[in-house]
Amino acid sequence: MKGALLNIPHEELSTRMLPIHQGNQDSSQANSSYRMDPYALDQLRVLEKSPNRKGAHAFSSTRSLVHKVGRNIPSLPTRMLDAPGMVDDFYANILSWGGNNVLAIGLGESVYLWDAMSGDAKLLLTLEDVDDYVTSVSWATTPADSHCIAVGTKKSSLQLWDANVGKKVRSFDGHSSHVGSLSWNQHFLSSGGGDSTILQHDIGAPTSHVATYTGHTQGICGLKWNDEGTTLASGGNDNIVCLWDAAMSRRDRNSPRSMGSISPQFVLTDHTAAAKALAWCPLKRGLLASGGGEDDGTIKFWNTNTGSLQNSINTGSQVCSLLWSKHRKEICSSHGGSENQLSLWQYPTMSKIQDFKGHQARVLNMEQSPESGFVVSASADETLHFWDMFDSSAPKEKDCFGVKKFMMGMPGIR
User: Fold this and answer.
1) Cys bridge to 301: 47, 130, 311, 347, which one at CB 3.0-4.6 A?
2) DSSP code, position 174
């Protein structure tokens, strides 16, 4: 339920408050000054519950926002967690919020699991190589495998772990550089490497590697399957976005020349910096949003059926990640630069609804809670902030693009 993150009573929360981690120090100094104890299970700690700010200005702002979007959106985080050891790596994707309501986060050489219902954190794993660190995490998306989580590392390792028993189930070979992006399509796991390749793994097959996607010339920094499982979007440090047809990998698996190279269906070349941020709209098929890095700063919207650019807006700062609301015409972006903010936009006008500030360094990743109301942001200031941002209740009659409610049960519409 929506209140799962706020289930600690106020009295108990007050006793658990800790000083806010000083996030304005240089990230390289913060990460090199000490090596955190991987067995200290309080690495993720409740910091503070932001106070309600009252006054004429706040009331006026709230009233204006309610009139604009039909609901009050708190501008302050509802919870903050200390996350020491987080590496300031733009190309890493170290957050994943599973359907089990457990948030996985990669902190240096370790992966921690934070239970949103209880507020408890536990250590899942610590890499054996002290010079390695976690660059990607991703929970499996099928109910049968919801206890499984994939972990990629800087030194090209890709592992599958069973979170219920805390054991590594399997390792996957094939990459020669860091594994910074992961995306699931049922029992298939796609991994994007700094070696510019995307590998498709069948986690249940004796020989897991079933396909290789080649089309980028530099490292992969973003990877997302659409909800239907028909198209994979990838973003690279070569500034391009590629779209891949799943049918091609199926044909490749069934051909005598298995594990061959698959080319993209579309190559989108409009970005002028690394295209890390990718997000499929859950309410309109074939609509993909992508965000560009520091020398780009744009959010672009694509019709993936034709490969055509629909719209582009300049945000004025590095776009690190994107999240769509599952119920309304809204999209959230996270940024680096002077503000290090999250921004909520109305689609398709792309008028800004609100900025969310508080991080002291760029916001590397975002994830959405399973019920879709809360957004968690991970910053290079070594904190996690939780925001009560999206409306988690679906409209009664229609979805935000005018699709009747009965269509929500059709394949590919969530």
Assistant:
1) 311
2) -
The pLDDT assigned to 240 comes to 98
Distances (CA, A) of 17 to 10, 22, 113, 375: 11, 15, 20, 21
Q: What is the pLDDT of residue 259?
A: 55
- For residue 240, give both structure tokens: 């391009």
Query: Which amino acid, one-letter code, is at 61?
Result: S
- Is the distance from CB of 269 to CB of 239 less than 8 angstroms? yes
Number of separate helices (H) and strands (E) present in the chain = 4, 30
Question: What is the edge-to-edge ordering of all strands in the sheet holding 134-139?
Answer: 134-139, 148-153, 158-162, 167-172
How does strand 383-388 pair with strand 220-225? unpaired
In the DSSP assignment, the letter for residue 395 is: P
Side-chain half-sphere exposure of 369, counting CA atoms within 13 A: 25
Q: If you search the block for the tokens 């020398």, which residue do you land on?
A: 295
Q: Which strands make up the sheet holding 188-193, listed edge to edge? A: 179-185, 188-193, 197-202, 209-214, 261-262
Look up the pTM and report it.
0.82
Q: How far apart are alpha carbons 144 and 84 in whole angstroms?
A: 33
Alpha-carbon distance 364 to 335, whole Å?
8
Which two three-digit tokens encode residue 109? 């050489």
Closest CA to 339 of 308, 310, 318: 318
The residues, ordered by sequence, that sit 6+ positions from 27 with a Cβ below 8 Å of its Cβ are: 88, 361, 380, 381, 382
* Predicted confidence (pLDDT) at residue 63 exceeds the cutoff of 60: no
81 within 8 A of 381, measured Cβ to Cβ: no
Nearest-10 Cα torsion for 57, 58, 59, 62:
120
Q: What is the pLDDT of residues 127-156, one digit of tens each?
A: 999 999 999 999 999 999 999 999 999 999
Strand order in the sheet with 121-126: 95-97, 102-107, 110-115, 121-126
Burial profile 307-331: b = 16 or more Cβ within 10 angstroms, e = fewer: eeeeebbebebbbbbbbbbbbbbbb
Residues facing residue 244 across a β-bridge: 232
